[in-house]
Amino acid sequence: MHYVPLGKSGLMVSRLCLGCMSFGVPGREPHPWVIDEKASQAVFRVAADAGITFWDTADMYGAGASEEITGRAMKEYFAKRSDVVLATKLANAMGEGANDRGLSRKHIVEACEASLKRLGTDYIDLYYVHRLVGAAPFEEICAGLDLLLSQGKVLYLGASSMWAWQFAKLRAIQREIGSQPFAAMQNFYNLVYREEEREMMPYCAHEGVGVVPWSPIARGFLAGNRPKEGAQSDRAKSDKHHQGYFGSKQDYEILRRVEKVARDTGAKPAQIAYAWVLSKPFVTAPIAGATKPWQLEEAVGALEILLTASQIKYLEAAYKPRPVTGHS
C-alpha cells in the first residue's frame, strides 16, 4: 500500500479509502441493502491486511449503525488510534426534529458529539460537510466547524459534492476568520461521470485540496455488474444514482471499452475503472466500497495497474458532457 498526503496537508492517507456505507442493519432505512456487522468483518480484515488505513463513513449511513460498526472494527484491527485516519460526515437528517439536520452551529456541535459517541473515539480525523442542506449561512457553517477544530474534536475538514463556487466561497470565509480551510473534497467521479473536471477538479489541483472520489466504479456498473434488462439490484431500488442514470448508450459504450482494456491486460473491469481514477494526478484516494471481500481485493489489485496514455485516451474517447448530478 502506498501512503500520500491529503492534498497539501500533512495528513498521510492510504491510496485507497475504505467506504463503510455498506455496513449496517439489513432492512433499515435509508440503506436496506447493507450487510450486517458479522459479514462486514471479512471486508474490514481485507482492508487492514492490505494496509488501507483511511476509513470513511457518515452519520446517516444505516441511521448511525455504520459509525458504530466502523468504530468497533477500528479497535479490533488497529493497535493504536493513530494508526487509522477516520472520516465521517454530517448534514443529512438524523431524526424528525427541525434541528436534527443541516449545518447550523447547533446541529454541527450536536452531530459531532453523536458521531464521536457512536464511533467510540475522542476525535475525528477528517470531518466532512456531507451536503449543503438547511438554511445556515456560510459564515455560520464555517464558525461552527472552526469550534470543533479549536476543541480538538476534529483535526481536518472536508466537503462533499457541491458547486465549485460554493466550495471556493466557504474556503475563502474560513481563511477570513483565521480557520483551517477544507483539506478535502469528496465528489462523484468515474469514467461515466466526469462533469467534476469542468471546475471542481482544476480548483482542487490549484489549491492543493485532496480529492477523495465516491463511486469510482459507478455503483458497480463499471465492474460489469449489471442485472438483466429491466431488473434492479436491491441497492438500485433505493439508490437514485442507479435509477435511470447508469445505462445510457454512452455508458454502455464506455463499459465496453473498460471490458476490452480489461481483457487486453488480464485485469478485471472494476480494476481498470479504479486504475483510471487513480491515474488522475488530482486524485488522492478513491473510495472503495464492498459487500464482499473479493470486491475490495480487486480494488487493491488496481493499485498495481498503470494504464498507458493510449489506453486512457481510448477509455475517455466515448464520453460526452451530461447533466450534473450528485450535489443533493
Strand segment tally: 10
Can you summarize the main beta sheet? 8 strands, parallel
- Number of helical regions: 11
Order of helices and strands: EEEHEHEHEHEHEHEHHHEHH
CATH architecture: Alpha-Beta Barrel
Shape: globular
Q: What amount of the residues lies in strands?
A: 5-15%
Number of domain modules = 1
Average pLDDT level: 94
CATH homologous superfamily name? NADP-dependent oxidoreductase domain
CATH class reads Alpha Beta
How would you characterize this protein structure?
With 328 residues, this protein is an alpha/beta fold. The chain has a single domain, classed as Alpha-Beta Barrel (TIM Barrel). The chain contains eleven helices and ten strands. It has an eight-stranded parallel β-sheet, covered by helices on one side. Strands 1-2 form a two-stranded antiparallel ribbon. Strand 4, helix 2 (65-77) and strand 5 (85-90) form a beta-alpha-beta unit. The mean pLDDT is 94.
Show the helix and strand layout.
Blueprint: E1 3-5, E2 12-14, E3 17-19, H1 37-50, E4 54-56, H2 65-77, E5 85-90, H3 105-119, E6 124-129, H4 138-151, E7 154-160, H5 164-176, E8 184-186, H6 200-207, E9 210-211, H7 234-237, H8 249-265, H9 269-278, E10 287-289, H10 293-302, H11 309-316
Parallel strand pairs: 3-4, 3-10, 4-5, 5-6, 6-7, 7-8, 8-9
Antiparallel strand pairs: 1-2
